[in-house]
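User: Run a structure prediction on this.
Assistant: Running it now.
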Amino acid sequence: MIGLGSYAFFWQHSELAAQRLDAFDMIRRTAELNVELFQFCDYAPIEDLGDDDLARLADLARENGITLELGTKGVQAEHLEKYLDLAAVLGASVVRSMLYSPTSRPTLTEADAQLRQALVAYGDAGVDLALETYEQVSSTELVSLVESIGHSRLGICLDPANSVASLENPRDVIDRTAPYVKNIHVKDFAFTRRGGWVGFTLEGAPLGTGLLDYDYLLETVRPNERGINQVIEHWLPLADTIDETVRLENDWNDHNLAYLRSKNVY
């Protein structure tokens, strides 16, 4: 399925927004766009919802035919088990995470032990745990960790854009991770010259206008054949005003959904 994530509404659920979206609003907006998947990714307020509100959120998604996924940071067993509990209430079958969190930077050996502990419960629950590619851990190390653990519920959330910051070629990241991908974050990106021509800025771009070779990703990973969900995200810089930024964010959502729908046949 093609979906939207909380990063697709990043500025609209930020404190800067005049009419700030909450979890329920993002589900409603997703439904209005005829999208059947939404991922709450690095969205801290989801952890603060009580049982009644979580049940209401699950009901709202179900009523609108929307499948939910979750995303967080860190691999501490206790934290991942907390997200597994959230997944059970929300009916989510995928939890995306990253090795590092704001409070923890485990070694690969420590991450291995923590993941093995958490995966016992994930396996019992039938929920996939997808570790995202990003610049702080090389894709080679991430694949090695997944291979070493060898659990059927552990895989990779592929986002080729993230690893560019550590000088990994996006095609290499796609090739290396393809057999283990369980979730995809789709965002385009481009380099632009900074003022005075003193360096470059790496930032987002509407799909099909930047450096992401999406056709190659489709050909190599084959998400439709394998039942791998694709979640739209953005690296949208703040414009001159928050109102202009929100307008652009909505325009990018419309454009990126149309782009993915034109490329994917289910």
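The chain is about 40% helix and 20% strand.
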